[in-house]
Design goal:
By secondary structure, the chain is an alpha/beta fold. It has a single domain, classed as TIM Barrel, CATH 3.20.20.70. β3, α3 and β4 form a beta-alpha-beta unit.
Length: about 180
């Protein structure tokens, strides 16, 4: 958080209910402390579980393909909640779906896991970004290609491996933040 991360998604597919809520509460508290030291806000989202997001006071939920509909999540979390969807092709993004944003992945081969699908590339990202819903570029995004993702039309980036696999995650977050702010 101190390095410039402004959104954090709590994701642990093995945890259910109370255990996921406990994790979300702990992560949210730590993220808020880090963001306060930086002097900037942080938004917390919960992966797949709108009920946990509501109970934790999170800023929103990121829905997977097997989750509730964006309209249902919005009904539960309210009009100001961040509601995200996942997409693996530009034509899966519909600005009228009720979501706040979409993750499009993988733009490049993921850094944090083995590739499950072919990389889409910056052209697909540009096509997706033109569909009227803010798009976060995900999959293989790092300091070397984050600027290209923004230039292709992405509203932002979503990373895991770029930060978590770095020798110094804080330094890597700062480098990504510099690229995005530039």
């Amino acid at each position: 958080m101190e390095g410039g991360v402004d959104w954090l998604q709590v994701r642990d597919r093995e945890l259910e209910g109370a255990a996921l809520l406990d994790l979300t509460d702990a992560v949210r508290a730590a993220a808020m402390r880090g963001a306060a030291r930086r002097g900037a806000p942080v938004r917390i989202l919960v992966n797949r579980r709108a009920d946990v997001a509501l109970a934790a006071g999170a800023d929103g939920v990121h829905l997977g393909f097997d989750g509730v509909a964006p309209e249902d999540a919005r009904g539960l979390l309210g009009p100001d909640a961040l509601i995200g969807i996942s997409a693996h092709a530009a034509d899966e993004i519909d600005a009228g779906c009720g979501a706040s944003y979409a993750h499009l992945a993988p733009i490049e081969s993921p850094l944090s896991k083995a590739a499950e699908r072919p990389a889409l590339g910056m052209t697909a990202l540009a096509q997706a970004s033109a569909r009227g819903l803010p798009v976060l570029a995900q999959g293989g995004i790092d300091v070397g290609n984050a600027r290209a993702a923004i230039e292709a039309g992405a509203a932002g980036i979503a990373v895991t491996g770029s930060i978590l696999l770095a020798e110094d995650p804080g330094r890597r977050a700062r480098a990504l933040r510099e690229v995005l702010d530039g």
